[in-house]
Each structure stands twice: as structure tokens, then as C-alpha cells.
Amino acid sequence: MEHILWYDAHKLILKDIIKAENCYLYDSQGQRYVDFESGMWSTSIGHCHPRIVQAMKEQAGKISHTGYCYSSPIVEESAEEVLEIAGLAHGKCVFLSSGSEAVEFALKIIKIISGKPLLFALSDSYFGAYGSAGEKRKDEWFCIDWKECSTCSDSNECDLTCSHLSQIPFDKICGFAFEPGSSSGLVRFPPKQLVQNLANEVKHRNGFLIANEVTTGIGRTGEWYGFQHYGLQPDIIVMGKAIGNGYPVSAVAMSQDVVQRLTHNSFHYAQSHQNDPLGAAVALEVIRVIQEEQLIERGKKLGTHFIEELIQIARRNDTIKEVRGRGLMIAVEFRETKDDLLASHIFNELLKRKFIVAKRPHLNVLRIDPSLTVQEEDIHNFLINFEQIIAGRVH
Description:
By secondary structure, the chain is an alpha/beta fold. It has helices at 38-41, 50-60, 73-86, 99-114, 131-135, 192-204, 256-263, 277-292, 295-316, 342-352, 376-391; strands at 17-21, 24-27, 32-35, 92-96, 118-122, 141-144, 173-178, 208-212, 236-239, 250-254, 320-326, 329-334, 355-356, 358-359, 365-368.
């Protein structure tokens, strides 16, 4: 890997993975690893799902890429399905290449149709690797830390006139960009009433609600989308990662109101792989597999069991500070130690036992995000090994 520029916050450990199947990875020596990270949280229905592979083969053999003045019916068919599961059946959809790009696309739309200067977000949200969302400049963004809201005695009511929230300049906010639970990888869930009140106030002041579902969408949290746990209907929904099951496609679903406002404003956006038939075909087949195999219901059930078992392990081992999760999006946070982060040790020991999880850079946190197709036996074996490592036993 001498000629590959790697992201240095994540150490490259396995350099010879040559095959993948569902939640299993195989190296050149035939060793098998269980992937509890789903790639970069992307393989929602498992690596190399046969139906996705077949859909890719068939579409690539017909037409994979189109131009500025011609398209393919598969793009419209896929857009209809995306809008249907988003609850925006009368809106429109655009297919792009990455979650970061899709977020930037959505934010540009909101600023244009609103005309207001500020975007609003919770401070621990992550929206992308570049652009406005990546920088979050103070002249473009207003963010609040909701940590004290989580322990507020009035959290069930959530009064926006309180000293902490009254500073929000709602009249200047064009949109509330909401990431429902990933919290920059830490898996934290802001209070439902807080989110509802913020969203309602922004919309009352003629702003818009954008749900960033790049990490939390397509079944990850036990619902199609993370925002559904908050009783909301966004104006724009951004999808990525899981919608392509490892293929680089993202989607932005827009309400009918947003589309109508957009037609009256000057908005131009075009890139080489916008609305490509191949990406659209992959997204369509992912949705169909999840629906036909009832994988969201399955993931919700498995996630509930997984989280409950991890909580029991935490009660038996005081090295675990907290287990947080929703569906199959789980984080385990460990108590701080004087030397190296405990999470790094556990990550390495799990890897020795052929389990892959995500280690959060510079934090004592592990992320566990298996595919919706993960086998119950693999969850069981993971839990056994996880507790053995924590307890310091070696078998």
C-alpha cells in the first residue's frame, strides 16, 4: 500500500482483504473476519449481496452513465421508490455520488429558496468532509450544545425561552440541519421534545428542516430513517452510504414545496455522475431487498437484543461507562484510563479474534454497526469474546 494516501486517523491494519460475503471478510491466507462496521457503515444488506451484484451487472450491461440531455427510465423508477419511503411522494429526487456532496447540495438549496443567512445545527453533528458543512463558519452557521438539555428538569416540555435556547436567532435561520443520532460517530440522541420544538420554531419562521440520514438512514436505527424516532417530516432528506450498499451513490429527496420554490429561483448544479442509471439501479434494488426481506424489522429486533446484552455486560464490568444505541447503530464508551485509551486495547484484541469494529479517533469509544443481515450466531460470539476481553480472560 505504498502508493495509497490513507486517512491517518484510522490505522491501516488489514492490507490483503480479497473477498467479502455478507458480514464476512477474507484475506489472502483464507482467514475470515466478521465485519461489525459494515465497511464505513455502508453495507446495509451485507457485502456483495447477490441481488445487488446482479442488478449492477444487468444495468452496467445496458447503460451505466448518461449525459446532460438524455436519461434512462430506471432513474425515474428509482426516484419514485426513494420518495415513497421518504414520505415525499409528490416531491423530486436527485442522485449524486457521496453523502458529503448530497448534504452540500441540500444546504445550497435551502439557502437559495429561503434567502436567510444562517444554517442551524446541534454542535455535535457531522455533515460532511468539505464545503460549508465541513467548515461550519460562524457567518454561515449557528450551533448549540445540547448537553445540558439532556439533563434539564423541563426536558419533557423544553421551553425555548430558557437562557440556553433563547440566544438562537430564529429569524435569521434558513434551515435546521438535523443529524438524528450519530453525533459525529458518538451515537447520542438529543431529547425528542427539544428537537421537535426547534424544528417547529424554524419552520414557523419560514425556515426548513433538513434531515441528514447519510449514517442513520435506510434501516440503521430500526426505522427507515432516524428522524422517524422524533415524529418529524423533513422538507429535505439526504441519503448516502447504506442506499448504495457500498456502491458510491447518494440521494436527496425534496418535498413538493421545496421543488416549487426552487423553480422560481436561479439554481444550477451539474456534475458528471448526477442521476447515473447505475447508481439509481443499485439504490432501487437495495430498497427492494430491504422491503421484501423485512430487514428493518429484523434489524430492530436484533439491535434491541444486542444493546440489552451489552448493557448487561456493562453492569458486570465497571470499565464500561455507557452503552448507547438505536437499532443496529451502537456505541460503547469506556471509562478513561491513565495510560492508553482502553478502547484501543479492546479494538486490537477483538481484531485478533477476527472481529472488526470502528474505533473512534482519540476517543474511548467503539462503534458497532453490523449489516441488517448479520447472523444471530455472530452477535452471540461477539458478545462472548467482548466480555472475555474486558474481563481480562484469554481463551
